[in-house]
Each structure stands twice: as structure tokens, then as C-alpha cells.
Amino acid sequence: MLNPTIITQLQAIVGETRVKTDADSLKTWGCDWTKHYTPSASAIVFPATTEEVQAIVKLANQENIVLVPSGGRTGLSAGAVAANNEVVISFDRMNKIVQFYPADRMVKVQAGVVTEQLQQFADEQGLYYPVDFASAGSSQIGGNIGTNAGGIKVIKYGMTRAWVLGLTVVTGKGDILHLNKGMMKNATGYDLRHLFIGAEGTLGFVTEAEIKLERKPRDLRVLVLGTPDFDSVMKILSAFQAKLDLTAFEFFSDLAVQCVTASGDVQRAFPEATPFYALLEFEALSPAIEEQAMQVFEQCMEEGWVINGVMSQNETQAQNLWRLREDISETIAKYTPYKNDISVLITHVPAFIADIDAIVQENYPDFDIVWFGHIGDGNLHLNILKPANLTKDEFFGKCQVVNKKVFETVQKYNGSISAEHGVGMTKKPYLDYSRSPEEIAYLQAIKLAFDPNNIINRGKIFDVK
């Protein structure tokens, strides 16, 4: 339990009704989408300004209170889980569009702005925010920045990092820093904003961000292609990239399609099943581009890389084809999947997938694997589905054995144990598969420079002494 005096001090900062300690609130705001840890927060605090966040951090330093940032709580690495009586700082009230800069094609937002809210605002200005993923309706910009979120458009537009022009942060010391201030050019030494992007809230709290916007894509076409094997997916990627600028290139297995279509809301792209599917998107800005796409499609058919395929003819068809990919996470949730978000160089993807399939089949032949991912940027999502005869704890225990072998394979290919979901607590034991001891020592030193008392998101990514 949190000392009542501390609660009174927190209420003095944010208001009496903005500090919650009831059981339902502690459970709701103390967790994210991971199911590995039981939330155990001591209080939830809802600041409305950067200055209120600063006051909370200064109080936490004085009283040795550990703070955990909470955004849309859609994370998959337990980076926002309060499992050790921490005080949760929710950014739900800091959800305002602060200012739009038309000449700069830039918008300043508070950290609690929901991704979809920013996308809609950009659309109203005739512009586009391209960082997009299934949780866009609930994830918050601060959380996206904390994990350097990627999503389905990375092949064309890059990660969240590419769209952050400036940050306002409150460090673990309680200092307010205005980093880069939205400028495209600023050659004045270390660019500290990039330390906070992907830091998972371990250096301090992002409270505001200047976000770059882009022109809207036009005349988008979506192709879904069925392939006989995974190697064909990679050949299709090379063939289309040689002729077109793709805005997305995704892949998924037939088991993923079975899970999505079993809901009855989504239909297969074509009647026959194939082992794997590629979904690609491009701008058909002229008839010549669309004709070029059809020529590549026909070439892939002749080579035997594509068994069947379909291309959208209007926006509704495009949205329905996208659902085959975007509804996967939701429809496999009932199987309590054990998720791994990993990446390797695109060159290594076919061999890597073959190695992982062999590992799982050798150890647990009764486990089903749903593969999907942003194959155009080397990001793979490995989802092992829980058999009905195993409890969650039994299943996760068995997956821990597979985990070590999966990450040994990631290390073999010089890949990353976390492509876009972050490290948090779930991947912390495996960080040394992607980072050397020397790198980790530098990361720990950076953490202590910004947060010397280790009060911000303690125990996430790595431990510090």
C-alpha cells in the first residue's frame, strides 16, 4: 500500500479525483496486453500537463517511489506493466492536438493522443501520418515513441523514429527538456531525442512530440497472392520491388487465414488454400503503373511463384483484403498465443524461418505455428498456439524452452530479439542475444545519467545497480 501522505501529495499535484487506488483501476491501468505478469500497482495518477509530470517525478525522487508510464496499454513486452507496487502515470488526459504548422507539415501533440486520432487529424489537413498497425485505435503516441513502433507501412515510410521531429520530456531527475524543437536541420551536437525514441520510458516521460506529416497516398491497389512455399514469397518481393515502389509488403500463413476466416466476417481472397500468402500495396498513379504491376504478376505466375491472386478494384475491396492480414492478432487471441516479434536481414529470412519451424516441430510437434509479418523489412511474428489440453502456465513454460533456441537462431543470423514491440520484461532475460555486454554497459550508463535514482520504469529492458 502507498503511504496515505504520498497519495495526498499526488492529489495536490493533479487534483483529488485524478489519483485512483481502487482495485478495478489498479488492474486496468497496471497492465498491458501481455499475460505473463499479474498487475500490482499501488496508485494510478492522471496528469494533464508537462509541469504536473515534472512535479510527480520530483516527488518520486524525494520519496523513492517507482513510476511506470502508461499509454494505450497495447504493448506486448510488459513495458507498461506495474508488477511491483509502482505508481502508474497514465497519459489519458494528455490527449490534445497542441498546434499545427502547415508550412512545416508538422503537428505538435501531447503524448496521450491516440494514433488513429493523429491519423484523422492529418487527413483533415489533407495530409497523412503513415505509422499504422492493428492497435491504432487505442495505442498512444507516447507509447509508440517509447517502442519506436513500426507496423504495416515500414517498407515505404520507416519506423516511428522517422516521423518524430521534436520531443518534450521529463527526465528521471525531473528536468524538462525540449529536444530538437521540430527542426529538420539542427547540427548542434548530440540529438538526445533519439535516445528517448525506443527507450520504453526508462529515461523519463515523453509528454509532447512534434510529428512530421506526409502527403496522402493516392489510388492505392492491394494484391493478395497465394504461393506454394515461403521461398516464393521472397522472389515475389524482389520481382515487384524491381519495378514498383511498394507502400506495404506483408506475408502470412494459411493457418492465419483459417483463423481469420473462421470468424465469418472475412472471406478468402480466392477459393483454394495455399501454404503462404503475400499482400502488397502500391500507388497506381497512372495506368502504366497498374499495367506494370499486372506484368510482374503474370511473370510470377509463369515462374510458379504464384498459384492464384487477386487485386482490389476499389477502396472497399482493398480494406477487405487488408483484413486478411490485420485481423490475425485479434482472431488468434482466443488460442492464448505465445508471441515472438523478431527480425533478421531480409536476405536471411527464408533460412531463418526454416530453422525456426524445425526447432518447434522437433520439440513440440503438436504445437501449431501462425506466421505473419512485415516481410518487406525483415520483421517476423512467430505465434505458437496453445493446445487445448495445456494450461496457460504449462504452455508458457514449454515455450520458454523453445525461446532459448529461437533466440540462439536469431543470434546466429545477427538479428534482433525484438523488432518493434520492445524488450520490457518479457524479453529482458534474452537481451544479450542481440546486444553485447559492452553495449548493455553503455545503455545502463545512459539510463543512470537521466535517471540516477532509477525511479522510472525500473527493471525494464535491463537492470541497473
From TrEMBL:
Q: Report which superkingdom the organism of origin falls in.
A: Bacteria
- Per the database record, which ranges form the FAD-binding PCMH-type domain? 37-216
Show the InterPro entries listed in the entry: FAD-bd_oxidored_4_C, FAD-bd_PCMH, FAD-bd_PCMH-like_sf, FAD-bd_PCMH_sub1, FAD-bd_PCMH_sub2, FAD-linked_Oxase-like_C, FAD-oxidored/transferase_4, Oxid_FAD_bind_N
Record key words, sorted: FAD, Flavoprotein, Metal-binding, Oxidoreductase, Zinc
Per the entry, which co-factors are needed?
A: FAD
BP term (GO), one: respiratory electron transport chain
Which transformation does this protein catalyse, written as a reaction? (R)-2-hydroxyglutarate + A = 2-oxoglutarate + AH2
Gene3D superfamilies, A to Z: 3.30.465.10, 3.30.70.2190, 3.30.70.2740, Uridine Diphospho-n-acetylenolpyruvylglucosamine Reductase, domain 2, Vanillyl-alcohol Oxidase, Chain A, domain 4
Please tell me which top-level EC class this enzyme sits in.
Answer: oxidoreductase
Q: Name one GO molecular function term.
A: (R)-2-hydroxyglutarate dehydrogenase activity
User: Which EC number(s) does UniProt give?
Assistant: 1.1.99.39
Q: Does the keyword tRNA processing apply?
A: no
Q: Name one Pfam family in it.
A: FAD-oxidase_C
Q: Quaternary form?
A: Homodimer.
The family line of this record is: Belongs to the FAD-binding oxidoreductase/transferase type 4 family.
Instruction: Supply the name of the protein.
Output: D-2-hydroxyglutarate dehydrogenase
Question: What is the species listed in this Swiss-Prot or TrEMBL entry?
Answer: Agitococcus lubricus
